[in-house]
Amino acid sequence: MSFIRSAKSLFFSFTCVAFFFPLTPASAEATPAVDPEMSAAIDWPQPDRPLAERFAVPSADARILKIVHNLPDGLEEQDQLFQKLVAQGLGGMVVNVSFNEYMESEAKWEAFIRGINEAKRLGMSLWLYDECGYPSGSAGGLTLRDHPEYEARGMNAADAPVVDGTVSLDLPPGTLFRAVAIPLRDGIAFPGDAVDITASVQENRLDWTAPEGDWHVFVFTESVLYEGTHAALSLARKFPYINLLPPEPTERFIEITHQEYAKRLGDDLGHYFAATFTDEPSLMSLFLAEQKHRVLPWSADFADEFQQRRGYEMIPLLPALFTNANSQGMKFRYDFWNTVGEMVSENFFGQIQDWGRQHNIPSGGHLLAEESFLSHIPLYGNFFQCLRRLDAPSMDCLTSIPESVPWNVARMIGSAADLEGRVLTMSETSDHSQRYRAEGDTRPVRVVTEEEIRGTCNRLMLNGINTITSYYSFSELDEEQMNRLNAWVGRCCTMLRGGYQVNDIALLYPVESAWVRFTPATRWVAGAPPEAHRVERVFHDAEKNLFLSRRDFTHIDARTLVEARVEGGALCYRDLRWRVVVLPDADTLPLAAWENLERFYLDGGVIVALTSRPLNSDTEFPSSRVQEIGSAFFGEGDASGMMVNDSGGVGIFLPRGTEALLPAVLDAVLEKDGQVSDETAPLRTAHRFIDGHHVYFIINDSGQPWEGTLNLPTAGAAEQWDPATGQITALDSGKSIPLRLEAYGGMLYRFREAIVPLRKSVEGNVIPGITTLPFPETAPTFSHGQFVTPSLEQDGERNMPEQSVWRAEGLITKNAVDTFLFTIFTYPEPVDLSQAAYVAVDVWLPEGQKASVPLLVILRDTSGVEYFAQAGIPMNASGHHCCHTALNRFERAGWSAVTDKPLDTSAISLIRVGWGGYLGTENETVAFSLTAPKQARLE
After folding, report:
1. Coil, helix or strand for 622?
2. Residue 14: its pLDDT value, please?
3. pTM beyond 0.90, yes or no
């Protein structure tokens, strides 16, 4: 999936309604009369009206808001636009002064001010967009116009091992900073023993003869960041971008943009706008196009700022950010990325938040590459820390196929809002992925239906989004459908806004554990170490396992663990309470967080660790104190383990390959929040506490109708609120509620008293065993790309009497083209995987392999539906791997010829295992050995 936010290309195409018109406050009296029918049509109740009224006819701020970047200049054209929006049931707009002559045309300002005054007079809800295109910060080039020193900067690095005693290395672009040689001992770099070899650089090239021993050479240059970055490759207008690390560039951006709105509209911008909308600001220190060097975020004052915050000099340790370093290097990685996160959150997001609060307007908007956990590090240092500095945290959703909607990003946004007590959240939402086609892409446009848009919004709202802004064209929907859709979204957002999500499970955002494993790459994060990618996979798999097992959760960060209270077997933060904490591949946290988890465990809490055991603190790598805490939680050894203390606290460790057991072990310790008649039903639930009432949102996350019964956890009466009709129905109890939901339908329930799910007492080991069953024996064949010369043969070195092992090898014959190689196991009779938990396969990868693309597993059923999943290892993760790919990780493949039905796991006709999407080099070999796939079932 591409994380270039190409949805913004719609700024300049069919989804961007290009209109805006002016009228200064002083000239408001000259506004022509509006069609009385339009005025009556938008007689929506205001947000302060009783809930039942707002549910029956949702207020403007709860409805879908159209993103409109260029209001018409003419009064008549503006009014026509407003009439169209009103006729469709839309609640308002996201607006900005026209992109044309951005910020500098008085005529455009007059049009803008007239437009927003008229929109407010009509009762519309508005958000204020803060940029000319995207990413936010450049102000259409104005921020840097007189201040080129504010441009984003990077510390570039080129490196190479010394071979046969000499090394030659071309310099990266920019000004030479320094060149160093680092000694290696047993493959570990020791930056503290570095030798300065800067004098060996002549005419942009390093030539150096090394003394005896193993050495690794680094050349660092400093330059602006533009080529190959998001700023250069976005589909909006291209501008050099500002540096988010120091405060001065953002101060200038605010002066040019935000302050200009306040100058013309007054200091109370909340009178006009619900929130600001910043769009994909970032450090730019992530290459979207392949480069020959790697890069770190940088600023002129960064080294001084680092020393002030961390207490030691950083320059000698720079190589540790790029190579496998000792414990000193791991500590430096932790401190470096921690400093980056602090500076970005304070100097960009914090400044805008502070300014907004002074002008009565929440700071909102969304970040870049939200779906990609590892990308968060080079782009922000600490993504979650930045989210917490938004008063209206937001996201974007580029697809309107419900099964592909990034619900987990919505859950993260909702979690950040709940942790900070924020009311507003937002998703910039569109069917961009179904419509946008790059040059040469001949796929037809995929028209999404009203039901699919509803299903998309359901996933977002269920997980914490309560404002939907839109780049949809809606060109295929008539006014009746549009009004029905807006009423649905409006009713759901009305019921779900405010309060906080109620659940028992906290899932850690494990960025600290990724910091100490991460190294920058020459394109995206593909070249980051396998251990860093593993953190990402385990984290996202934990999210998915919880979601699919109908276990709601809150994302938390290390700060939450440090600051939370321990009360009655629960970890408490503000009004939030969790009785289970899940640590996904998290071995590194501040010592204060580990010690608070220890208090939680001793007070009766449940801790489940996936893949990794506690190892490092924020100062020691490793820490004997942290290891002691981990042993108390999970016992000794690397195998699965479980400990129970006298207070009922439970520690469960699920090692690598068993992480998908998470739902099963949770079922053994904690009752679910509500029950459905069919546990396999495609229903998802959310529980919020708002204004003294418990509110449950139940959605059918499927394109097929569902019918059954619900049991909601209330001992008293309840109410059913139907978002399709606006009807409220009294229920005598929450027991055995009959429910029929249409495709992508939903229902809301509300009551005063909820029964807390039972925390079960634990006797004996609750970790299920795993039984592996072979498939019918079949010899593999292969498929390969045009520029791959393949071979497939039995691996004589690894063959075993009880099972054959095959070696597949692909020789790449052309540079920088998309290549692939898959082994194919075809079964004469369909294989039944309906009772399986995993597809299991043993894989061996050779040493020194460059390719970092993931190993993939693809399933095809007898009707031709194809689903795929990552097996959990990149192709450069050398050694033997027992890959257990959970069935619930498989998703529909974009190339699947059949798209109107799900995968039938009871009728699998073939399994492919291999790699693809690799842009390699000519004469490069990518190889792997494997056994035949098996199915693994839980005992």
Report:
1. coil
2. 30
3. yes
